Amino acid sequence: MTNPRIATYFHVHLVSDSTGETLNAMARAVCARFENVLPIEHIYALVRSQRQLDRALADIEAAPGVVIHTIVDAELREALEEGCRRLDMPCIAALDPLVSAMSRYLGAAISSRVGAQHALDHDYFNRMDALNYAIGHDDGQGGQDLEQADVVLVGVSRTSKTPTCIYLAHRGVRAANVPLVPSRPIPDKLLQLKNTLVVGLTISPDRLIQIRRNRLLSLKENRTSTYIDVDAVREEIVYARRLYERQGWPVIDVTRRSVEETAAAVMNLLTSGRGQVEVLG
């Protein structure tokens, strides 16, 4: 039997002239490709002056590691790269390869406007509107105008309906969710929807019981309940699956899916063949 490899920790410094969200997501995606390697993240957001950059470089010097940046301003970028050369640390411009390739393909000049991707444009307000809609139509609320949704997620308790709706909202998708509760009738408005995509979420009984038990533990609730009873949970799931089949709703199995993966599957259904019943495992 081989001994498990001890994880390697390293410092990664993320320097951005905007919110740092893009850079953080990219760094985490890259680090996830390496086993037993855990980054210690240092994020420097809204770095737009030499003073702010000097402060970041001082922190970088105190904790040597990899520097990744999305600095647009030419002078600040040069100062950061020079500082990293002085400290003998790798300095990576995260977006440069993609931006250069797009520029060559489009034959267009590259914008030097800082934080351009976060401008208060039409898409931004669409995302905010979608987020407000998701919050107002969470867990069966606001059922009177479900037809205004791009998608309605249906499922038994603890099938990631709410976080998936919030994630979709950040992509500009107006998403509502309706819980299936054994003692509660299905809203007529849900069954009457004609032009709105309705997606049923399903999950394995074992996984659902585990999630629900963890939920009860977090609430310090230890009494016995049908909420985690094996037979009752299986009946809930069977009832839900029969409903989806009867209504002809597409189905997504969230047993082994992250919220991001479930949201991606919903996006795929929105853009192609929304009426077709499809079980996505």
Describe this structure in words.
The chain has 281 residues and is an alpha/beta fold. The protein folds into 2 domains: 8-118, Rossmann fold, CATH 3.40.50.2300; 122-280, 3-Layer(aba) Sandwich (Rossmann fold). The chain has helices at residues 21-31, 50-62, 74-86, 96-106, 122-136, 161-170, 188-191, 205-218, 230-247, 259-271, and strands at residues 8-15, 37-44, 65-69, 91-93, 151-155, 175-179, 197-202, 251-253, 279-280. The strands form 2 sheets. Strands 6-5-7-8-9 form a 5-stranded parallel β-sheet, with helices on both faces. The protein has a 4-stranded parallel β-sheet with strand order 2-1-3-4, sandwiched between helices. Helix 6 packs across helix 10. The longest helix is centred in the last third of the chain and has 18 residues, at 230-247. The mean pLDDT is 88.
